[in-house]
C-alpha cells in the first residue's frame, strides 16, 4: 500500500484510540458529555443512519448547487475583468469585499430574500465561493506566456480565439484550485446557513442536538459533514485529472 495512505491511516487510528481511552479528556479536563467518545458517536450514527444520510444529501445538494452558481459567476467576472482590464481591478475588489462579509451576517439576509428552502443556503454558498473563483481564474487568464500571445497575434487570431485557445486553457489549473478551495467553503456555508431558518440538513440537526444536549448525535453530524466534504473534494480532484491531464503537474 502507498505510504502516503498508510501513515495518515495509522495516525487516524492512533488518534481515535487515544480519544476512546479518554486521553484528551484528561489533558483538556473535559467530561464525556462535552466530548463524546468515538464509540458513542458511532452508536449515534448507527441508530440514526437513515436520518443522517438524508440530511447529509440535503446539505451536500445545497453546497453543490451554491458552489456551481458562485463559481460560474466568479468565472464570468474574471472573464469580463480580463476582457476589459480598465475596470477589472475594481470588479475583483467588489467581489473580495463581498467575500469579507461574515456568513453569519449573510445568512439572515439570504433567508429573508429566498425563504427557508434550499435557495437561501445556495445563495449563501454562492456568495462565499464567488471570490476564490474570480481571483484565481483572473490570475490564470492574465498570467499567459507572452510568447504564446505573440504567436496567436502572428496568426491574426482575434480576441475570441485568444480567449478560447489561450487564456481560458491557461486558467484551467487555477480554476480547479479554486474549485477545490470552494468544496470546503461551500460545506461551511451550507451548514452555517442551516443554523438559522431551516427544517432539514446537518446544520439544522447539529443545532437542535446541541440545544437538547444530544452531543453524540451532534458529533455524528460533524463526522458526516467531514466525510461529505472529503467526497466532494475527491470528486473535484478526479475531474481535474480528466480535464487538465495535459498540464505539466499532471505529467509529473
UniProtKB/TrEMBL annotation:
Annotated Gene Ontology cellular component terms: plasma membrane
| Spans traversing the lipid bilayer | 58-80, 92-114, 120-138, 174-197, 217-236
What topology does it adopt in the membrane? Multi-pass membrane protein
Source domain of life is Bacteria
The ABC transmembrane type-1 domain, residue ranges? 56-240
Q: Name one GO biological process term.
A: transmembrane transport
**Where does the UniProt annotation locate this protein?**
Cell membrane
Give the Pfam families listed for this entry. BPD_transp_1 (PF00528)
Name the UniProt key words of this record, in alphabetical order. Cell membrane, Membrane, Transmembrane, Transmembrane helix, Transport
Please state which protein family the record places this protein in. Belongs to the binding-protein-dependent transport system permease family.
Protein's UniProt name: ABC transporter permease
Q: Which organism is it from?
A: Paenibacillus riograndensis
